[in-house]
């Protein structure tokens, strides 16, 4: 018998650490190659970590909720490497050795050292719970992440199976009312987290931070900054203090946009596609970029000075609030997509982000971003530019308001569009022209028929 450590692998994202979110095994469990050991969260995504060995779990070396560096042992296996392993003894099945100078890699990801064989896992079958809900494991996980009780979801799948769309639809409907109730105070009044190894700047200079009183301890909760929140905060600080932001906004009569959305929803061509005003907004931004390409540019510092890169394509970013935090995946070459294809791309992007499965590649290379703050009931805002871009557009809530039409006050669907821009790249006239173009499309979507 022997004990073997398994270290946290490089998941191929260029990151150096990850958080152990949840262990899926316990000491004494027998595992096969590719069985899921745990879920880990990086700044980019939530990943299921498969086992590279077959054996018996010995010890879990990292607790749930802790952040560990790549290469740190996180679990041990008790294995038997003999050829004559007797009954009840599990033989080891080693993963391919990493290349010299490299660390462990995820099973199936490879390390550039040649093809590797991988045992295929049985196809996932629907699982019926004790309360009679039929849903596949990935759907159950999605429901947990979105806070959806599967017993309250109306199934539309074959034989009464709850589908992914059922869960997402239920979650979107519930979110409208989620903030109405005031949450109760928790039973734990304070939560402490390990102090960082590197002392804050002030403490490094010998400045002693005041210790909270006992009363303060009872009233304060400490939340560690890690994962997506850590990456988001770093990017926003970088953007806010490197690019001079300017924001302009315009109130718009979006009645004809709402009429178009209603017609598309009723169209057989869009029967399997979710349609929302965000689709028209996305088309409007792409159309307006073509007329003012500098909003789609980027400021680049070089050794020889600075230059502006004007992109003649649109990788359209959509800011998405997910259970893991704010993500900004983008639709590559959105300018080439038809209305229907763009709608499908938005659906896929949103669903993947909500599941926490957005790959790192989908979060890189964006050229301009839309943030739909209207889904939270906000009228307008001053969004911060996504790093590497020169503009971001915020769409406010669409609601009925009195509006003057041909000298008469009538109820119309009204929204506010705001845009923040890097003033190093684009001047006020360009910013204003771009937002005016977006507004003109929302006011009259027929302009898209060119």
Task: Describe the protein's architecture and organization.
Keywords: Acyltransferase, Lipoyl, Transferase. This protein has 450 residues and is an alpha+beta fold. It folds into three domains: 1-119, RNA polymerase II/Efflux pump adaptor protein, barrel-sandwich hybrid domain (OB fold (Dihydrolipoamide Acetyltransferase, E2P)), CATH 2.40.50.100; 127-175, E3-binding domain (Dihydrolipoamide Transferase, Irregular); 239-448, Chloramphenicol acetyltransferase-like domain (Chloramphenicol Acetyltransferase, 2-Layer Sandwich), CATH 3.30.559. It has helices spanning 137-146, 164-175, 201-204, 214-219, 227-242, 255-266, 277-291, 339-354, 428-443; strands at 2-7, 17-23, 30-31, 36-41, 46-50, 55-60, 67-69, 73-79, 127-128, 134-135, 245-253, 297-302, 305-310, 316-322, 325-327, 330-331, 368-372, 391-395, 399-405, 408-422. Strands 11, 14, 15, 16, 17, 18, 19 and 20 form an eight-stranded mixed β-sheet that branches. β9 (127-128) and β10 (134-135) form a beta hairpin. The protein is globular, with a radius of gyration of 26 Å. It starts with a strand and ends in a 7-residue tail after the last helix.
